[in-house]
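Technical annex B. To support the medicinal chemistry partners, we prepared a structural model of the target in complex with nicotinamide-adenine-dinucleotide, based solely on the information shown next.
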Amino acid sequence: MGTSLSYVHPTPESPWGTYLSQVDRVLPYLGELARWAETLKRPKRSLIVDVPIELDDGTVAHFEGFRVQHSLTRGPGKGGVRYHPDVTLEEVMALAAWMSIKNAAVNLPYGGAKGGIRVDPKTLSRRELEKLTRRYTSEIGIIIGPHQDIPAPDVNTNAQIMAWMMDTYSMNVGATATGVVTGKPVDLGGSLGRVKATGRGVFVTGREAARRIALQLDGARVAVQGFGNVGSSAAELFHQAGARIVAAQDHTGTIFNDHGLDLAELMPHVRATGGVAGFKGAEAMAGEEFWDVRCDILIPAALEGQITPERARRLHARLVLEGANGPTLSAADDILADRGVLVVPDVICNAGGVTVSYFEWVQDFSSFFWTEDEINLRLDKIMVGALKNIWDTADRHRISLRTATFAVACQRILGARAERGLYP
Ligand code: NAD
């Protein structure tokens, strides 16, 4: 019998609460393995660390850092590190758990993990950001490593931060350990194709899903929330396939152009100003109006909990591609299903990033690097194969793609659990 955890208080709208309800939905499809299901409802290991740094003005600031290893049953932990002022242990737990599901759904030999620091990195200088990253890496150094747990970029972290993490870990162990993180710069053991891999995976799963519902990408209208790594890369590929990106929203504002945004101009604008606001080739709109934009495909690629029941009733898209982790509340999921909106869930839709991270890790171990074409081809093949398997499962049981992804993944995780047995 399971008991709830004393240290978190999930609600139906919170990330961990959303994850728990997703697990409950899959229980009827687990057969004998359901006896192990409680292991999915508690992280294996959660580390909370104090991250003190001396700021440029001489004062000392303390930040809360986390690294959660949800499951190590199928292999080392794997999952990104997020820098955001709203990071909490509960959020990191949910993100780590979704990594377990995602890694198993695409059959990568990993468990699931995630990390984060409760900080607004935009308020820090580059020097302060480096100190924060190095101290955090040292603090979580007791549980990460190329064979233990391999961090990667997530919201507000990037290749430079991965380089600092790799360097700090390497200094502490006395040897260059490129395999301790993925998403590194290419000349430090990073992989070609990694930066855009998550967006590419969103595109590949979107292309396959569109084909199944006879939605032509050429001329399709696309709205993207979050124009960072994932959102902008996905937008670019849809644009190349002939789609029109009619709306984009980020933390700076919301922009709209009925004829399609000119990405060749928008991308440099975002790089130069830090966001989409103020882009001359579009009209600005109020944030909430984003959810009313007439579009065929909606790509939430920002943060959790964005598609609420109220927004789910309003949105126009036929296809929702979850670039972000956990963007749809469970109650909203039901509304979208009732309305006939197809949702490609995060746990398969955004798995392209971790798949190329896996390629990076393998390349680091063998010190033999692949071409970008090879990487993109292998990524395409893995994503298409994984999605087909999930779709067959969904058709067989007449369940949503989300529940089918959880069914495929949980069977793999719990199957491995059953085979390993309980220690001691
Ligand atoms: P990023 O930091 O590059 O971009 C985040 C984007 O979200 C920015 O455009 C930011 O302005 C926007 N945003 C932040 N708050 C917002 C708000 N309140 N409203 C609207 N937009 C807001 O991060 P990313 O790596 O692109 O990650 C985006 C999402 O994709 C996250 O949910 C992340 O967990 C998920 N994800 C990322 C990867 C990866 O490889 N980077 C892999 C899988 C999933």
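Notes passed to the chemistry partners:
The CA atoms of residues 28 and 139 lie 40 Å apart.
The pocket of nicotinamide-adenine-dinucleotide is lined by residues 153-156, 198, 225-231, 249-251, 275, 301-303, 323-325, 350, 353 (CB under 6 Å).
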